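Regression test case RT-17, inverse folding.

Input:
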């Protein structure tokens, strides 16, 4: 089956899809993106993704390329035309095509590109196999709440993780606090049993999966703390995990080569995975959205 992409108003074969060489996304990383997970044929957290996209666009003063309602139709179409039941839809909006000049062009039109691909259905057993993370300095700019396509530090960090045999790299700011992973949010269960993840601020991307897990935890009567945690605290934690639309709730059993807790997937992590899956199947995604920075 050939894949279909959406490029500026047209559905085209994936291998023929292309954009202009003077697209500002290509030249300046002057654009934003979203990655939507599809679970059992349904988009996960569509409302949250759309709101976060609105935030990213507004912060960068990039116009919507089409109305929000039209965009929702295109997202569904791209998923359908690629026969994706479980997988991902990637969406990118840039400031458009213009003669190369740093300042905003006066007359460019936002460019819109979408692709979709299948992924294996969410597999709880696989997610419960713990992975390693490494810690690296957070060398990014200061607006991580904006889902910008400018991802060089994230790419370099992820590559460093891969070369170290790890799944993810946790980025650490100048105060020795973990902000987030290169493409996921970071969580620990402290030695005293507190569930902790960084608060929503300019320092992290407020993950849609993160929001679902927080809501699922609250519904189950579990407490949590939204605050930064240090590398030291993580090293002494009982449990750790990462969340994202692609990793769902994935157990972390080693940080910088050192076992987390007893080295096995944590009890709370395992429970939160179940709660998360039940939550997205029942609710479709987070309801308490809106805190994008
Ligand atoms: N932080 C960063 C830096 C990310 O790239 C991602 C993945 N988009 C996340 C967190 C997790 O966000 P989400 O749960 O919305 O996929």
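Golden output:
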């Amino acid at each position: 089956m050939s894949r279909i992409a959406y490029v500026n108003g047209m559905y085209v074969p994936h291998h023929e899809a292309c954009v202009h060489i003077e697209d500002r996304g290509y030249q300046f990383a002057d654009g934003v993106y979203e990655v939507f997970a599809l679970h059992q044929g349904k988009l996960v957290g569509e409302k949250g993704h759309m709101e976060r996209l609105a935030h990213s666009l507004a912060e960068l003063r990039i116009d919507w390329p089409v109305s929000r309602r039209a965009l929702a139709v295109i997202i569904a179409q791209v998923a359908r035309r690629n026969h994706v039941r479980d997988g991902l839809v990637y969406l990118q909006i840039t400031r458009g095509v213009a003669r190369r000049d740093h300042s905003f062009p006066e007359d460019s039109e936002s460019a819109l590109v979408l692709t979709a691909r299948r992924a294996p259905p969410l597999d709880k057993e696989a997610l419960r196999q713990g992975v390693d993370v490494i810690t690296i300095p957070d060398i990014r700019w200061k607006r991580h709440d904006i889902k910008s396509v400018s991802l060089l530090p994230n790419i370099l960090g992820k590559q460093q993780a891969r070369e170290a045999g790890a799944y993810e790299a946790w980025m650490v700011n100048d105060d020795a606090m973990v902000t987030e992973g290169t493409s996921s949010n970071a969580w620990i269960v402290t030695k005293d049993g507190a569930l902790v993840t960084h608060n929503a601020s300019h320092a992290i991307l407020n993950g849609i999966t993160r929001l679902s897990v927080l809501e699922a935890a609250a519904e189950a009567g579990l407490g949590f703390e939204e605050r930064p945690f240090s590398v030291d605290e993580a090293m002494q934690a009982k449990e750790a995990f990462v969340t994202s639309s692609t990793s769902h709730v994935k157990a972390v059993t080693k940080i910088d080569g050192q076992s987390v807790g007893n080295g096995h997937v944590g009890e709370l992590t395992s429970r939160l995975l179940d709660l998360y899956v039940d939550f997205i199947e029942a609710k479709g995604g987070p309801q308490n959205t809106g805190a994008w920075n």
